[in-house]
Amino acid sequence: MFQGFPEIKEALMSNRMQAAFMVAPMAIALRAQGVPVKIVYLGHRYGSAVVVRKNGPIRSFADLRGRVVAIPSRFSDERLIIFKALADNRMNPTDVKLVEMAPPDVAGALAAGAIDAFSMGEPFPSQAEMGGYGRVLFHARKYWPDYISCVLVVRQDVIDSKPEAVQTLVDGIARSGLWLEKGRAHREHAADFVGRYYYRQSPALLRWALTNPIDRVMYEPLSPRRKDFELITRLMRQTGVLDHDIAFEEYVDTRFAEGARNETSWKYEAGAGSSQ
Tell me, what CATH number does 25's domain have? Predict the structure, then answer.
């Protein structure tokens, strides 16, 4: 587990890591810069929000004028959603001050008053809500109905030499997503074992992020869609983090998502000793 996206980028570029979940604009920017990676699947849909202090003066997006808003990276969908909301509210990009901050630091910074708001993926909005000092101003889908954030990126040399391994990975993620979408009980169980054995975060926090409400984060459909990514690249061009057009096929390989199209949910229930 990494604390920030720049470290993930460096690990991929140096071949210390061959596959990773990262924010979509960073993956696109890496490919545009000549780094041999491709997006092969999505991590989830939705799951990002803009959060302000619970009892503070910010009650609408317009109230962010002149305020400091933290984002995980200039190459993030969480940054792009701010620009999308600015345009929809007929405000200028200079009306808010964006600062880059490692995601684990934003909740504490908001509580301490070091920032006025943050635009981040889960579980950090949930952390601020559960802590009693944060309030979701809006979820990303309000301004971006088909919003996606994290994508699965794989190095091209691995795609070329071990396509069957990439397909196995994508198949497993697809089946996990379908399993999570089978109901609240599955999400609560996932929060428990993932929180304790993988993320080392409070299961209660992950439970909040996965169930409050139940569609706060969605795990289907996870296939990369051209129209979603063409919107992202257009916003990247408009906001100055992509200096040239790049074709969908240059940074996305859809064959693994197509190969996983007929996968079914894992057959596993809480308390079972194995899954199929």
Answer: 3.40.190.10
The pLDDT score that the predictor gives to residue 198 is 84
Check residue 273 and give its pLDDT: 66
Residue 275's pLDDT is 66
**Please, which residues have CB within 8 angstroms of residue 65's CB and are 6 or more apart in sequence?**
91, 95, 96
Ranges in the chain, pLDDT < 70: 272-273, 275-276
Same domain, 52 and 97: yes
Runs of H (alpha helix) within the chain = 5-13, 24-32, 77-88, 103-112, 124-130, 156-161, 163-180, 184-194, 203-211, 226-238, 248-251, 255-259
d(CA 74, CA 179): 33
- Tell me which residue range forms the domain holding 120: 47-142
In this structure, the answer to whether residues 106 and 236 fall within a common structural domain is: no
Please indicate, yes or no, whether the overall pTM of this predicted structure exceeds 0.90. yes
